Amino acid sequence: MSAEPDLETLVADVFARGCTSRRTLESITGKWGVLALVALREGAYRFNALRRRVDGVSEKMLAQTLQTLERDGMVHREVLATIPARVEYTLTPLGAEIADQLFALVELLESRVPQVVEAQAAYDADRPR
Amino acid sequence: MSAEPDLETLVADVFARGCTSRRTLESITGKWGVLALVALREGAYRFNALRRRVDGVSEKMLAQTLQTLERDGMVHREVLATIPARVEYTLTPLGAEIADQLFALVELLESRVPQVVEAQAAYDADRPR
Question: How many domains does chain A have?
């Protein structure tokens, strides 16, 4: 018998602070993780093009986001043998599954923006500054 | 003609940094937003019970998260007329819709944890420290 936990029988629980699923949830739903994954559903991106697509992200934050997503097996980074060398990012099959789910969330949210704006106005009206 | 943008005809775009949907996406997918919304699918929670459920969140961060979710119309905060007064949090219909979508994401992610762990191990093996 091994003292190592058996991954097949362990139940992942995002509510448990030490669980891998919690850390991965944070990276796919982090400020930039969602936008990078949803953008990559549109096809392969080079770094600078992706940075333009994800309006407002800094070079450093995008690099860090992509690195985490690559490590988690969501994003594939390919160095193309061109001169000069180009680096292209695509979704892995796992990343595509997660990105589809995130896209559904984004679509739902975008369709509900008028309700959100209304709620914000009502909230602020009740609490005059 | 009004100079105010017409909410019905404006298209929400999470990729645009100034869009309300971007800010709301950040709050529902923030580090604690996802977990609070998914927890509240289980039913009404009082603050301290919710804090125990969302393992690892500080009092300050949970209060801030709930306040943003309340302002966005996702969470309803009710002060119960008990002695001492109790405060209970529930999902609004809008919050329930978003939370269902987040729950689907969490379920997908939890089921893929073995793949994530494998990807992380392969990534780390390629890059010895």
Answer: 1
Q: Give the Cα separation of B117 and B54 in Å (integer).
A: 23
CB contact under 8 A, B13 and A110: yes
Kindly list the strands in the beta sheet with B45-46, ordered across the sheet, starting from the edge strand earlier in the chain. B45-46, B86-91, B75-80
Q: How far apart are CA B54 and CA A22, in angstroms?
A: 11
Has residue A10 been placed in a domain? no
Q: Which residues, 6 or more positions from B76, have their beta carbon under 8 angstroms from its beta carbon?
A: B70, B89, B90, B91, B92, B95
B42: three-class secondary structure by DSSP: coil
Complex confidence, ipTM: 0.87
Query: Is the dihedral angle over the CA atoms A49, B106, B23, B95 positive or is it negative?
Result: positive
Q: Which among B26, B101, B117 is the nearest to A108, CB-wise?
A: B101
Is pLDDT at A39 greater than 60 in this prediction?
yes
Cβ(B67)–Cβ(B90) below 8 Å: no
Q: What is the 3-state secondary structure (H, E, C) of B54-123?
A: CCCCCHHHHHHHHHHHHHCCCEEEEEECCCCCEEEEEECHHHHHHHHHHHHHHHHHHHCHHHHHHHHHHH
What CATH number does residue A78 fall under? Answer: 1.10.10.10
Q: What is the pLDDT of residues B35-87, one digit of tens each?
A: 999 999 999 999 999 999 999 999 999 999 999 999 999 999 999 888 888 89
**Residues A24-52, mean pLDDT to the nearest whole number:** 93
Chain B residues close to A24, C-beta within 8 Å: 109, 113, 116
Per the domain annotation, does B3 fall within a domain? no
When computed from its CA atoms, the radius of gyration of chain B, rounded to whole angstroms, is 19
Residue A86: which domain range?
Answer: 20-102
